[in-house]
Amino acid sequence: MELSARLCGLWALLLGFAGGGGAAPTETQPPVTNLSVSVKNLCTVIWTWNPPERASPNCSLWYFSHFGNKQDKKIASETHRSKEVPLNEEICLQVRSQCSTNESDDRSSWVKKCILPPEGDPESAVTKLQCVWHNLSYMKCTWLPGRNTSPDTNYTLYYWYSSLEKILQCENICREGQHISCSFTLDKGKDSSLNQHSVQVMVKDNAGKIRPSFNIVRLISHVQPDPPQIKSLFIQHGDLYVLGKNPQNFLSRCLSYQVEVNNTQTGTSYVLNVDEPKCDNSESKGNLEGTICFLVHGVLPDTLNTVRMRVKTNKICYEDDKLWSDWSAVMNIGKKTNSTLYITMLLIIPVIVASAIIVLLLYLKRLKIIIFPPIPDPGKIFKEMFGDQNDDTLHWKKYDIYEKQAKEETDSIVLIENLKKTSQ
Ligand SMILES: *[C@@H]1O[C@H](CO)[C@@H](O)[C@H](O)[C@H]1NC(C)=O
Ligand SMILES: *[C@@H]1O[C@H](CO)[C@@H](O)[C@H](O)[C@H]1NC(C)=O
Ligand SMILES: *[C@@H]1O[C@H](CO)[C@@H](O)[C@H](O)[C@H]1NC(C)=O
Ligand SMILES: *[C@@H]1O[C@H](CO)[C@@H](O)[C@H](O)[C@H]1NC(C)=O
Ligand SMILES: *[C@@H]1O[C@H](CO)[C@@H](O)[C@H](O)[C@H]1NC(C)=O
Ligand SMILES: *[C@@H]1O[C@H](CO)[C@@H](O)[C@H](O)[C@H]1NC(C)=O
Questions:
Q1: Do 44 and 90 belong together in one domain?
Q2: Above 80 in pLDDT, residue 357?
Q3: Residue 127 lies in a domain
Q4: 154 lines ligand 5 (CB under 6 A)
Q5: What is the atom index within ligand 6 of the atom nearest the CA of 306?
Q6: 193, 172: one domain
Q7: 182, 234, 238, 266: which could form a disulfide with 157 (CB 3.0–4.6 Å)?
């Protein structure tokens, strides 16, 4: 204690010397006491301290603090300071007391307190821990396993944000190839001030073998909207009008748009980037609210055009403008002289015709007989003559017999009649 007090004195002397001999010698303040640090939630770090002992009674105390490399300097009268910090690295706060809000007035020596990263092998911690807020309705976080990890590690993700009373665990852990992901509901609808806040995220394993990883996701960035919808298309004077609908939860002024028009016949692709969707056309102007309109010039109306679009957040409402939504469903306009369709039709029609013929052949035995007339077989005739009865010949034989019988009967009737005549 004594030594440090002496050092402080020396420090003040040096400062006074460096000051170049001002009118009043700068009075050195005693340093703050009991600087301590603690963590709340997942990564809200709170530093607190007590006022210096034996402070000059004429001094109205101010505290000047900053992090690590003189970042986030702050002069305030409170005896605490907090910050949301991903605890993956050491973070230190330095505080001193002074009697004015002027940075260079008389001041105390610095007091420093650090918070260390969690224990464990840094190589075991998960990497690339990132989260995206989809549609302002759910958060999806993904990460890669650390290098020194066994492949059967069971991960857990914990999250916290301002309107939650306690830390929650994410339930739906999925593996997607190399990546592991987890999604949880985070609905903007419930809390309109949510945009100003962040979500604190921590990933560790159930067994406590890997070092926990942290991330702080600012909710004003990492927002991915749902795709927009194309409602209708029409061509007028060579201009294509694309009418669409914004994704839910997003206003037009907060989005940038991309409209893609592919001409299937010429094989050309045209991409239109739009910040303000509007058409100077009476037909589209009078449309329902919430309809967005785009105008694409020089579209060939007598060929098939394939249209789709997508959106991303812009810098007016959000912090980043990199995350495109998925593409909307495709909509077509123009004459459908689709060559592939033509070829498929060319292939399909003969197949249909051929199968129809086969069906006809199968069902109409007569047709079969006409097309393939039975060839007379001399062997068969011989067999018949020698009384060899097989199924085919039986019918004919029976017929012969029946015919013969009929003839005999008629003969006998005639004979009887003749007999009757003669007897009369
Ligand atoms: C520092 O903390 C100790 C114990 O908590 C307390 O006795 C002491 O009064 C504190 N110092 C100041 C200047 O408040
Ligand atoms: C504090 O201010 C009063 C009056 O302004 C003065 O008389 C006194 O000497 C000052 N004390 C110190 C320690 O500067
Ligand atoms: C702070 O102090 C410096 C010199 O000590 C002086 O030049 C400057 O004007 C002061 N600033 C304020 C805001 O009082
Ligand atoms: C987008 O969010 C809204 C409400 O916030 C919800 O009704 C809708 O189902 C969400 N869309 C998808 C694809 O989840
Ligand atoms: C992960 O969980 C599975 C099933 O619960 C278990 O068989 C496996 O041993 C666990 N892995 C580790 C590293 O604990
Ligand atoms: C339009 O053409 C581009 C470039 O050839 C291609 O990348 C894109 O997939 C096409 N779009 C559709 C909907 O097929």
A1: yes
A2: no
A3: yes
A4: yes
A5: 13
A6: yes
A7: 182
Q: Are residues 107 and 70 in the same domain?
A: yes
Alpha-carbon dihedral sign for residues 310, 312, 314, 317:
positive
What secondary structure does DSSP assign to 118-141, as a single string? PSS-GGGS-EEEEEEEETTTEEEE
Task: Out of 298, 333, 368, pick the residue that ends a domain.
Answer: 333
Same domain, 329 and 376: no
pTM (global) more than 0.70: no
Coil, helix or strand at residue 260: strand
Atom of ligand 5 nearest to the CA of 207: 14
The reply to whether ligand 3 has any atom less than 6 angstroms from the CB of 15 is no
> Is 269 within the bounds of a domain?
yes
- Among 73, 92, 115, the domain-final residue is 115
Mean pLDDT estimate for the chain: 79
Q: Which residue's CA is the closest to the ligand 6 atom numbered 11?
A: 262
Q: Based on the domain organization, do 250 and 342 belong to the same domain?
A: no
**With a 6 A CB cut-off, is 208 part of the ligand 5 pocket?**
no
Closest by Cα among 218, 207, 240 to 333: 240
Predicted confidence (pLDDT) per residue in 5-37, tens digit: 443 333 433 333 333 333 333 547 788 999 999
101 lines ligand 3 (CB under 6 A): no
Q: Look at residue 305 and tell me if it is in a domain.
A: yes
Range of 82's domain? 33-115
Angle at 406 between CA 402 and CA 409, to 5 degrees: 135
Tell me: pLDDT of 329 over 60: yes
Total of domains in the chain: 4
What number is the average pLDDT over the span 268-283?
A: 82
Q: What is the mean pLDDT of residues 130-135?
A: 93
Q: Are residues 42 and 86 in the same domain?
A: yes
Instruction: Name the residue with the closest Cα to ligand 4, atom 11.
Output: 135
* Bridge partners (DSSP) listed for residue 204: 156
Bigger pLDDT: 194 vs 166: 166
Return the closest-CA partner of residue 249 out of 308, 190, 293: 190
CA of 155, nearest ligand number: 5
